[in-house]
Write a structure and sequence with these properties.
- By secondary structure, the protein is mainly alpha-helical.
- Helices cover about 75% and strands about 0% of the residues.
- It has helices at about 5-30, 35-40, 50-60, 60-95, 100-110, 115-130, 140-165, 170-175, 180-190, 195-210, 215-220, 225-235, 240-270.
- It is globular.
Length: about 280
């Protein structure tokens, strides 16, 4: 009887693992086949392996341009998001001022409006800025700012919880030693909340790298395309050559998969561990 729950758990985990990894395996195998082999033997191991598709993608200058744009957007969005979220969370968690609850509720309300709903008003705002001479449409800066804006609310909620868990006595002791609020935030807080900052950074990186909607709405020129947008356009252009499309998608997914394997521990530790063990 005791083993039944464990058997059920492993069964569910096994099914979930199959559902997740089978499409990835098919994608990788497909990138090493011809289109005819994909239709005839979609699940078979590619033997002999055809590397022409991957080599052709790697020789395409536009692929590396999209890769560069995605890296720029990801690093910039992550840096801005972590800095802004850390500063706002510190103020909301460690400082008292009039209207504090209203400010916190404002960020909470932001969780109710997903990017799919708010992207149209955001686009109109960017158009109005364009009329004022501030060129935001068709620029990576607009993608970075919009992605950062939509990452703030949820991550502020996460960091505020960790910042609140730090004992007040530690802050009082720092003030007695002559520390200002900014000094406490800049020197003492980062080591204490490092797991949560790393978790937020990892989550923002993955979300930014995989984001399609914002680049699709904001970007027009091919030279500014990111990998998700380039993948969609590539599928539309070479939809009949499934093997070539599989190679492009597989190469675009490799950085995300590698990054997740390295960041998985940080994400789990940051979401489960407390900021300070008192």
């Amino acid at each position: 009887r005791k083993s039944l729950p464990r058997i059920a758990q492993y069964t569910v985990l096994g099914i979930a693992t199959i559902l997740i990894f089978v499409p990835i395996v098919i994608l990788i195998f497909g990138s090493l086949k011809t289109t005819g082999q994909m239709y005839t033997y979609p699940y078979a191991f590619p033997y002999p392996a055809h590397w022409d598709n991957i080599i052709n993608i790697l020789k395409t200058p536009s692929f590396w341009s999209m890769m560069r744009n995605s890296i720029v957007v990801m690093i910039s969005t992550t840096t801005l998001t972590v800095i802004i979220c850390a500063m706002v969370s510190f103020v909301l968690a460690r400082m008292e001022f009039r209207g504090k609850n209203w400010v916190f509720n404002l960020f909470t309300i932001g969780l109710m409006f997903p990017i799919n709903v708010a992207i149209l008003p955001v686009y109109f705002v960017l158009l109005q800025m364009q009329k004022l001479g501030i060129h935001m449409i068709d620029s990576l800066l607009a993608v970075i700012l919009v992605q950062t804006a939509f990452q703030l609310s949820g991550n502020i909620m996460i960091l505020r919880t960790f910042f609140t868990a730090i004992p007040k006595e530690l802050q009082d002791a720092a003030y007695i030693d002559g520390c200002t609020n900014f000094d406490f935030f800049r020197r003492i807080m980062p080591p204490l909340v490092k797991p949560s900052l790393a978790a937020v950074a990892a989550l923002v990186m993955i979300a930014s790298w995989n984001d399609l909607l914002v680049p699709l709405v904001v970007l027009n020129s091919e030279k500014f395309w990111t990998l998700p947008l380039g993948t969609m356009q590539f599928q539309g252009q070479y939809g009949q050559d499934l093997a070539l499309v599989s190679a492009f998608v597989a190469l675009s997914s490799i950085p995300t998969i590698i990054f997740y394997f390295f960041a998985e521990k940080q994400i789990v530790a940051g979401m489960t561990a407390g900021a300070v063990k008192g």
